[in-house]
Specification:
Rossmann fold; six-stranded mixed β-sheet; four-stranded antiparallel β-sheet; 7 helices; 10 strands; binds adenosine-5'-diphosphate
């Protein structure tokens, strides 16, 4: 099986995320549940795409498949020209750590570490600091992210001392510190009130526009999806419709505002 050395140059003419005829079937006792059904889609570098659908339509399963967190039953996922299925587990993990960052509904911050500790450990786990070509975490870049995310002065605190909105913004900083090519966000505003949801959506949009990260956001909330350049609607494991987000061209408030 071919390996992945982390240095593959993306081909800018091809999609950064490609799913072809993707199917995922779960065995639930004696019953087979097809969560994703022959789905094909592609995302170009720098796009902000939202995937919307009712509960049970297969959004999370698609998220896990595109993020290389689970294997497809059939079909393929190609990230930056590399087919996940051709990689062994180690190489798949390496590809994921080099190219993809995740933002989850429940923030998933480690409770015993400060916000800074959470960001540092994500950087360490990504492998960027180790080896002969390892580079230490870029503190200037972290300052820049903290400013965009309005969490300056909050990094010494543990998650329990932060509001839900602040925790999610720390989780976004943790995702972005590795300068991933792709940000996959699964219901990132699901646990937040309207004010904090707006702030987090603005941050995701800002990181997409200003830092160039390709962003794919799963949500069941049509208002959140409206900020995306493209919205894909899922039902019964398939994409049934596509449209442009009605707020996709909105001008963002200045960094630090609306929080
Ligand atoms: P969504 O994120 O849109 O709510 P999911 O991908 O979580 O949808 O689920 C799609 C379908 O797959 C549902 O019918 C769900 O019950 C089923 N499913 C999801 N995960 C599993 C699993 N680990 N085992 C069995 N069935 C599952």
């Amino acid at each position: 099986m071919p390996g992945y050395n982390g240095n593959v140059q993306p081909d800018s003419a091809s999609p950064i995320i490609l799913a072809e005829n993707l199917t995922k079937t779960y065995q639930a006792g004696k019953v087979l549940v097809t969560a994703v059904r022959g789905l094909s889609m592609s995302v170009e570098p720098g796009e902000f795409v939202a995937i919307v659908g009712p509960s049970g339509s297969g959004k999370s399963t698609l998220f896990y498949l595109l993020g290389g967190l689970t294997r497809a039953t059939s079909g393929r996922v190609v990230i930056d020209g590399i087919d996940f299925a051709t990689l062994d587990d180690g190489a798949r993990t390496k590809l994921r750590r080099h190219r993809i960052a995740f933002v989850f509904q429940k923030f998933n911050l480690l409770p015993t570490l400060s916000a800074m500790g959470n960001i540092e450990i994500a950087y360490t786990v990504s492998g960027r600091a180790s080896g002969p070509n390892g580079t230490p975490m870029d503190l200037k870049y972290l300052d820049h992210l903290s400013e965009i995310l309005s969490i300056q002065g909050r990094l010494v605190h543990r998650p329990a001392e932060l509001s839900g909105g602040e925790q999610q913004r720390v989780a976004i900083a943790r995702a972005l510190i590795t300068r991933p090519a792709i940000v996959l966000a699964d219901e990132p505003t699901g646990n937040l009130d309207t004010r904090n949801s707006d702030a987090v959506l603005n941050m995701l949009l800002r990181s997409n526009r200003e830092l160039g990260q390709t962003t794919l956001m799963i949500t069941h909330n049509p208002e959140a999806a409206a900020i995306a350049g493209r919205i894909l609607y899922m039902r019964d494991g398939e994409i049934v419709r596509e449209e442009k987000g009605s707020r996709a061209n909105e001008v963002l408030p200045p960094a630090g505002a609306a929080v």
